[in-house]
Amino acid sequence: MLTTILEDPLYLQFAFAGCIALAILTLPLKDIISVGFYDISDFFVTGMIAFFITYGVLVTNLATVSIWLFVGVFLAVMVVIMLMNILVILPFKSRAENSTITSIHELEGKEATVSIPITLNGTGEVIVSTGFTRVNKMAKIYDNTDNITVIPKNENVLIMDVSNNILYVLPYTNSIKAIGKPTPTWNKKPKK
Q1: Taking a C-beta distance cutoff of 8 angstroms, is the pair 6, 54 a contact?
Q2: Where are the alpha helices (DSSP H) in the chain?
Q3: Which pTM was predicted?
Q4: pLDDT tens-digit readout, 81-123
Q5: Phi, psi (5° rounding) for residue 100?
Q6: Predicted local confidence at residue 117, as pLDDT
Q7: Cα separations (Å) of 191 from 180, 183, 186, 187, 188?
Q8: How far is the C-alpha of 106 from the C-alpha of 159, rounded, in Å?
């Protein structure tokens, strides 16, 4: 059957299109059917490239098309895709995950702003600025020794603890921000 496909340009085009379709359809299975650095989608992409090269050889009549030529091209493309995954994609992927994702436990001690009011027995929401992004997280009032019943919206809070993906917060006033802009003492003229 493979020899029939390899000898007819129309069948090669159908095989090429079929490999494209299978590569797209197997994208959800990419993490399930995988060998670390080579997965099911890569297999169909390899087939697609091999059929494309075999089609080029058949159309230009550079050599006779055989199963061995196709298998050789398939294995060569497989090795190139594996090397690209190992040397290029995986290192960049690991760096991207480390630099853009913040662990929720790294939020302890950070300042946040309440976006949904937090009640004594209820859960609210806070916005935490982490680098260039803002993260919304559920929040509750931390050990209530000060008899706090509610933390209103837009109130600054300090994240005291993180447990079960919930931030435990207390109202907080940053002393540097609270001072504001001091008025100069050397220029007593009123502003116009």
Answers
A1: yes
A2: 2-7, 9-25, 40-60, 67-84, 90-100, 175-179
A3: 0.47
A4: 888 888 887 777 766 544 445 677 788 888 999 999 998 888 9
A5: -105, -20
A6: 92
A7: 18, 12, 14, 10, 9
A8: 10
